[in-house]
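COMPLEX REQUEST
Ligand: adenosine-5'-monophosphate-propyl ester
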Amino acid sequence: MKEGDPPKSDETDEGRLSELLVEDRVIEPSEEFKKGAIVTDDQPYQRAAADPEAYWAEWAKQLDWYKPWDKVLEWNPPDAKWFVGGQLNACYNCVDRHVKNGLRNKAAIIWEGEPGDRRTLTYWDLYREVNRFANVLKAHGIERGDRVAIYMPMIPELPIAMLACARIGAIHCVVFGGFSAQALAERINDSQAKALITADGGYRRGTIIPLKHDADYAIAETPSIEHVFIVERGDFPLRIKEGRDHWWHRVMQDAESYCEPAAMDSEDMLYTLYTSGTTGQPKGIVHTTGGYMTGVLATTKWVFDLRETDVFWCTADIGWVTGHSYVVYGPLAAGATIVMYEGSPDWPERDRFWQIVEDFGVTVFYTAPTAIRAFMKWGKEYPNRRDLSSLRLLGTVGEPINPEAWMWYYETIGQQRCPIVDTWWQTETGMIMITTLPGIGKMRPGSAGLPFPGVETAILTDDGEVLETGAGYLAITRPWPAMLRGIYGDPERYVEQYWSKWDKATYFTSDGAKRDADGYFTLLGRVDDVLNVAGHRIGTMEIESALVDHQSVAEAAVVGCSDEIKGTAIVAFVTLKLDAKLSVDLEAVLKEHVARKIGAIARPQRIIFSGDLPKTRSGKIMRRLLRDIGDGRILGDTTTLADTSVVEALQRQYEESEEA
Ligand code: PRX
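STATUS: Structure written out below.
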C-alpha cells in the first residue's frame, strides 16, 4: 500500500479492522421500541431517493420562515445554495417559536456544573437571556455579518451567546475551551472577530481552567477584538481592561428585554468552526442558515427518535461540531429538553455521568467511543450504582467504535433495551450522514449503517469507479442541506480539499470505508494525515509544526498509534539539532511545548528521539513505518526506504523506551 492509499480490508491506521471484519452479529431493536418509533418502515428512504429536493423541502417547512424560498437547490458544483431566496432566523427557530407555541415553561436547558451547582432554563428563560444578550452585542457595535469569537466552559451562557449572535445575524466562531491561547489567537485573526465572549474560568477535574487569563495572551495579538464579555463563573482572579472588558452580568443589567431577530437569507453565514486538515493551519468551516437548520432538525428528530417528553443529553463540548449541531441547534430547533454538564466524567467519582442520567431522567444519551472505552475499563460497578432505566436510546459519534465497546455499551448502559445509533459525520457535513434509524435499522456493532434518507454516499476507487461492495474512499455524491459552503477566506483550498479528487460534484470525505452486500457502510479511519484522538480531530502537521518551532528540534514526524481508550495515541519521532541543549526532561519539555502551542488534546503521549527518520529516496518521511514501530507490528514493505538501518535503530529505541 502506498502512503495515502485507502486502507484495504486488512489494514487501517489503527490496525483495528481485523476486529471489525470478524464481526457478524446483527441486533434488532426491541419490539417495544419498534412499535413506538417515529420511523417504522423504510418508506422515507424511498420517498427521499425518488425526489430528494421535495423531501428536504418537507423538512424545511418544519422551520419558521419569514419569506419562503423560491427554489430548493441551486447546484453549480461544488457550490450549492439551499432554499434560495428564503429568509429565516436560527435563533427564532430555536427559541421564540417554542415560547409562542406552548413550550414556554418547558425546560430547554438542564445544566449541572462540575462542583454540583445546577440551573434549569425554561424556553422562556432562554428567550429572555438571549434577547438581552443580543441587545448587549448590538449596543457594543456588533452588527450583522460581524464575527464573534466564543471561548467558554460548558455553561448555559455558551449557547445563549451563540443564539444571541444568530439573532442579530453575527457569525459565531466557537473555540473549544481546551485550546491554547495561541490557537485562540490564530482563529480570531483568521476570522477577524470583533468581539470575544469568555468566562473568568470553568471547572475541570476539580481545578479551574482560567479562560480569561489565557485569553488575555491571545487578545494581545488580535487587533480586531474591540470588546470582551466575561461571564463570572467563579471567583477567579483576572485583570480587567477598562473600556474593552465587560462583565456579562453588569452589561446584562441594563439590556432591553426584546431584540427583533434579523431576517437572514437562507445562505447567510451562521457560523464558522475551525477544524484540522492536512496542513499546519486549521481551516474555518463555513455553515449557513437555512440548509444547516433543516439538516440538523431532520437528523435530530429521526436519528434520535425525538419526542416532546425526551431528555436529550449529547455529552460533547459545544466547542466541537457535535455540540453545535446536537447540543444547540438540532435539539433546540426541535423544542427538546437538553442536558449540559460542565466537567469531567470521573469527577468526583467515575459514576458522574450515570448520576446525571439518574437525577435528570435522561432518555437519549449520545457520546463518543473514547468515553465508552473508558467506562468499560473503569468497570460495571459505576453504572450499576445508578438507575439507568430512563434511557431508551443510545448514540455514538466521532470515531469508529470497536464491537467489544459497542456490546458493552449495549448491555451495560442500554441494558439490552436501548438501540444504538452509530452516527458518522464530520465538521464539514454539519449533520449526521450515515447511521441506522433506531426503530427500523438492524444494528451491526462497528458498522455505522446506511446514508440518512436524502443523503447519498458511495465507495469510490482512486479512479472514481463506484464499488457496490468492498473497501475504498468514502464519497458523498449528492449535495445535502447542511453541507459546508466553504473554508473561511480560502475558496481555493475548499475546492482543492473537498471537490477535486474526482469531479467537482463529488465530495471527498478523507475517510476510508467499506460497503457490504446489505448496503451498510463501515468506517475504516482517515486516509489523510489527520488523527482522531479521543474523538477529536488533530492534524499531524499541526503537531509537527509545533515541535519544530522548539529551538532544539530539527525534524519531527507525528503518527497515530493504537490506544486502548483514546483509539489513537499521538507518538512523535523527533530528531534534534546538533547544537540542541540536551536535558533529561526534554521529552516533558517538548510535550508541554505542544500543549502550550495547540492545547492539551495535542500533547504527544510519547516522544522518540532519533538520529534520523525513515525516508524514501525522494525524502518523504515514511509514516507508515513509524506507525508499525509504534504499534509494535512487523514492519511493512521497506523496499522504498533510502536507508533501512534507520528504522532498525528506531525500532530498538522504541522498544528500549517502552521498557524504560
Ligand atoms: O474519521 C471520521 C470520524 O471523525 C471524522 C470527523 O471528525 P470531526 O470533523 O471532528 O467530527 C466529529 C464528529 C462528527 C470523520 O472524518 N468519525 C466521525 N464519526 C464517526 C467517525 N468514524 C467512524 N465512525 C463514526 N461514527
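REMARKS: The CA atoms of residues 151 and 177 lie 5 Å apart. The radius of gyration is 24 Å.
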